[in-house]
Amino acid sequence: MSVHERVVIRRLRTGVPGLDDVLGGGVPEYSFNMIAGAPGTGKTTLAEQIMFANATPERPGLHFTLLGEPSVKMLRYQQQFDFFDLARVGSDIRFLNLSEEVLQRSLDAVFDRIIKEVEDSNPGIVVVDSFRTMLHTSDTSTSDLELQRFVQRLALRLTSWETTTLLLGEYTENESRSSVFTVADGIFWLYNELERNATVRKLQVKKIRGQAPLSGLHTFRITGAGLEVFPRQPGSIANGRINSTTRVSTGISGLDKMMSGGIPAGDSVLVSGPTGAGKSILGSHFVSAGAETGERSVIAVFEEHPETYVARALKLGFDFAGMIAQGKLDIMYLRPLDLSVDETLHEIEERVRRLGANRVVIDSLSGFEVALAPSFRQDFRESFYRLTQSLTALNVTVFFTMETSGETDYLRFSPYNISFLSDNIIAMRYIELDGSLQTILSVVKMRGSEHSRELRIVGITSHGMEIREALTGYRGIITGVPKRSPK
Fold first, then answer.
1. Can you give the pLDDT at residue 7?
2. For 393-405, how does the pLDDT look when each residue is reduced to its tens digit (9 = 90+)?
3. 76 and 175 both lie in a single domain
4. pTM score, whole prediction
5. Which residues span the domain enclosing 190?
6. What CATH number does residue 180 fall under?
7. Do the beta carbons of residue 90 and residue 97 sit within 8 Å?
8. 24 and 162: one domain?
9. pLDDT of the residue at 288
10. N or C end of the chain, less CB within 10 A?
């Protein structure tokens, strides 16, 4: 090969949904990697998932167990995951216990055994679990320099055998400057953060040679399928947003007129107002209007189960059950109390792509905020920004509902100062008019479009929402207690 030719490094698929995107395409072939983190963060499960995804009968996977849990015990628990194929154990997946060599307190004995097994098997992937145990049970007279030399020797030999290596170690964040990490081509750090009563698992790629990973902390979950990573920056954002001159109907003719023909396709719409004002009904009109023109919608609800949501809509004439049966609607319920923004986005994106949806309703942002883990609630503006940017980048029209206090200033459209992130804002509120409680609606903002600035009374009937007469001849309407203007 000429010195002027660029070396092409193949990237191994990890078998972990979302992780390849975070790594920039996968794990570099023949690389020497460290998976670090506290006990219980998922290091062994991650390594097993990668090994099962890449081992073959010709290039098997070797899993060396040191003084951690015995191989039999580990196998008993790991085979509960969907990725674990017990039929492959002993052929292209092999487990070896090095407890005896480790107890000899000899780094050389451990090194020789690993190299012998590698030479005999010609593996494509090697896992050493837990590497930290080996270092701490070595001869106490061994210096840090000798330990680093041992790791360097191991890395050199395994790489020369064209083996991709995963070394697992129990490290704290304060130990990330250890000299052992300088040898690694890749460093994957796992966290299990506890805040109040919620726990959030996170992954960070601190280092990976030769490619650009996604920066930051990425949340992940461990389920029956194994690990699933939710990239902090979904691929939809990178694809950008397509501007359109098309308008889509809200499903309410009077509101469409106020919005100069409807909502610009691909925009985000924030509907704010107190409880009971009709925000969800407005969202139902929006979904129903899409179904009438052949469009599909996804509704994400956080405050009530889909069955209840469908039943309420039917009372107002919206046949959501029929739309679901026809493949025009998908209603998803997200209510765990430790959600991450990335996980929510991933689930909504999956539903949008699967259905081919054109419209999305988030009902409501208030429920979404409560469902988030505490660390994501601290800066709800960032969470909402990422939600808005990701969904509009899918070229769908997004409809958010947001509850505001009845005593909130009418000109403040959310308690989180997020209104500037929405393309369009529809505000609703209660007023006392001639001794009765009335609901009014106004189109406060439409980015790049003309719109009505009237304050109109809203009526709720058995057929949904109606836009009624404009409030004229009154002053002080936005105070909630208007007075008739003097003639």
1. 83
2. 889 999 999 988 7
3. yes
4. 0.84
5. 11-232
6. 3.40.50.300
7. no
8. yes
9. 97
10. C
